[in-house]
Amino acid sequence: MLDRIPLEAFRVFDAACRFMNFSRAGRELNITQAAVSHRIKGLEDQLGVPLFTRRGRNLALTAAGERLFQRVRATLEYLEESLEPFRGGAPEIISIAASGSVSHLWLGEHLRAFSIENPSVSVRLLTTDSPSELASETNDLVILYSTGEHPRWDLGLLMKETLVPVASPTYLEARGLAAASLTADDIAGLDLIDYERFNAHWVSFRQWFNRIPHPPKRRIVNPRFSFTTYFMAIDAAVRGDGIALGSIGLITQHLQQGRLVAVGRDRVETGFGYYLGMPRYRTVSAEAMKLHQRLLATEG
């Protein structure tokens, strides 16, 4: 049906709805009142429903007209917004993609600082755990969980992945526990907070216990809490619900500000890390380069 309706008819319909007056709509569009009426009549004929009720000079939308107006207005607003980057004087927009845990726990604060330093630059953050969306070359920059190699992205290390159990001081104090003295057996018997492994390379508590030099002798039971996202597991640990597996680079702020403390003495380096990527076969803007350099300067 759309191929039989001139797109101009929707602009005319939108103006008529906003003004509820064909003459004023025509003045905005630089066409005559008769042209507006003709466009509206043609649109009604194509759709097979009346869009306006006419009582003398007064107009009102029918139920069908109201539904169409809401959709046309939303579509035109979306198109208007989409054209902003192509207008002269429009702010530069940098698109960066990262997983939910990286966005929530680490990247957000760095983007805020960059925005304050560069008020004329806009940053669009795509938060997704989908590998295909993260690696889409429509993004200017991307943060990938990787060993440092990718066929389409040049990667620079932001932080290695080092995993250690963490808990809030209030959780430990309430149970009379000294964080540094806890053994793997002690930790395995506490309230473990885990997350679902959507990536085969992610390490949760069961894999972590198997990788430390002296795994616990006790049978590892199911975690007390299990979340679909890693950052929700960390938030639960901050609230004092139990012990989570902390990726040190991602939770540095929580550790520095005392909201979380490392538990026990075992650490596991997984061989993976978080890497900042720049497209290998496309040149990015000077502003994106500036953000790239700033994030790499925070390497931990």
Q: What is the class of the largest domain in the CATH system? A: Alpha Beta
* SSE order: HHHEEHEHEHEEHHEHEHEHEEH
CATH architecture of the largest domain: 3-Layer(aba) Sandwich
- The Rg value, from CA coordinates, equals 28 Å
For the termini, the CA-CA separation is 57 Å
Average pLDDT works out at 89
Total number of domains: 2
- Major sheet: size, sense and barrel closure? 9 strands, mixed
Q: Helix fraction?
A: 40-55%
| Shape category | elongated
Which range does the strand content fall in?
15-25%
**Number of beta-strand segments:** 11
| CATH domain fold name of the largest domain | D-Maltodextrin-Binding Protein, domain 2
Low-confidence stretches: none
The number of helices is 12
Label the structural class. Answer: alpha/beta
Keywords: DNA-binding, Transcription, Transcription regulation
GO molecular function: DNA-binding transcription factor activity; sequence-specific DNA binding
Protein name: Transcriptional regulator
Domain HTH lysR-type: 5-62
Task: Walk me through this protein's architecture.
The chain is α/β, with parallel strands linked by helices. It contains twelve helices and eleven strands. It folds into two domains: 85 residues, Arc Repressor Mutant, subunit A (Orthogonal Bundle), CATH 1.10.10.10; 206 residues, D-Maltodextrin-Binding Protein, domain 2 (3-Layer(aba) Sandwich), CATH 3.40.190.290. α1 packs across α4. It is elongated and about 85 Å long. This is Transcriptional regulator. Keywords: DNA-binding, Transcription, Transcription regulation.
